[in-house]
Write a structure and sequence with these properties.
By secondary structure, the chain is α/β, with parallel strands linked by helices. The protein has two domains: 3-49 and 191-265, HAD superfamily/HAD-like (Rossmann fold); 90-189, HAD superfamily/HAD-like (Rossmann fold), CATH 3.40.50.1000. It is built from nine helices and 15 strands. The strands form four sheets. A six-stranded parallel sheet has the order 5-4-1-13-14-15. Strands 7-6-8-9-12 form a five-stranded parallel sheet, with helices on both faces. The longest helix has 12 residues, at 28-39. The structure holds magnesium ion. The site of magnesium ion has 7 residues, from loops.
Length: 267
């Protein structure tokens, strides 16, 4: 199917639509393409690997930045992790390490979020307020048999927290400590896991070959989109590429553009 015939356009958020969720300045080329797609009857969605904010918060951030976007078209890594667990065990008891966003996504999905045993899943998102007792409790629950989920897979990321602008270690690094302590390997739920892209297209009523994944990151957006059967568009952004593990997937995009406005000419 030609690019012009695609019905669903799924966009990465950080460094594709806006600089990042804590500096939500929109990119002009992203706004131009977004509005063009809507005006011409295409469907648009946002899919982010950010797990520290809920889908509801990310939707709000994007709307304030100028993107017309429905909440049910906004997908966070926390929501994806909740769907992943719910698909396997809808009554799972989950201990969630998060700044609150993933916890909200888990509750919205109907999962039980607990702070006491027994625990079926330990799910870890970035958490800049993480305490040793919570980390230690997570390790204990994993040793007792809980499965370990990494909500997205960033080792570190730029952000601003309690007024301090810095580079912060991400969920992947927190999970590495738990893996080391327990000898249990995590499942990373977030791009590039193809199931996330498949869930997103299915939730909106499309098949993967009707959809396009647009992002700045070959290791997450392109690798995941391609593995799930979506057409992939890489937009070159000069910096702020967050490190992800492509997990051996093909990272070569179907299309590469310097500006998202260039896509309009291709439609
Ligand atoms: Mg990005």
């Amino acid at each position: 199917m030609a690019l012009s015939e695609k019905k669903l356009w799924v966009f990465d958020v950080d460094n594709t639509l806006i600089r990042d969720v804590e500096h939500p300045h929109p990119f002009d080329d992203a706004l131009q393409l977004w509005d063009y797609l809507l005006e011409t009857g295409r469907d648009v969605a946002a899919l982010t690997n950010v797990g520290r904010l809920s889908a509801r918060t990310i939707n709000h951030v994007l709307k304030v930045a100028g993107f017309k976007l429905d909440l049910d078209h906004t997908f966070s890594a926390g929501a994806a992790a909740a769907a992943y667990i719910h698909n396997r065990n809808p009554s799972a008891r989950c201990f969630v390490i998060s700044e609150g966003g993933a916890t909200e996504d888990f509750i919205a999905r109907g999962l039980e979020v607990v702070n006491n045993p027994p625990v079926d899943y330990v799910a870890v998102g970035a958490d800049r307020g993480l305490t040793f007792p919570r980390l230690n409790f997570a390790a204990k629950m994993i040793r007792d048999g809980a499965k370990l989920i990494c909500i997205s897979g960033s080792r570190d990321y730029p952000g601003i927290y309690l007024g301090i602008e810095d580079i912060y270690i991400g969920e992947r690094s927190i999970v590495a400590a738990l893996e080391d302590a327990t000898d249990v390997e995590s499942v990373i739920v977030g791009k590039p896991l193809p199931e996330i892209l498949l869930e997103t297209t299915k939730a909106l009523g499309y098949s993967p070959n009707e959809a396009v994944m647009v992002g700045d990151n070959p290791a997450s957006d392109i690798a995941g989109g391609k593995a799930a059967g979506l057409t992939t568009v890489l937009v070159r952004r000069p910096d702020n590429i967050v490190p992800f593990d492509s997990q051996g997937l093909d990272q070569s995009p179907d299309h590469t553009v310097e500006s998202l406005a260039d896509i309009i000419k291709m439609l």
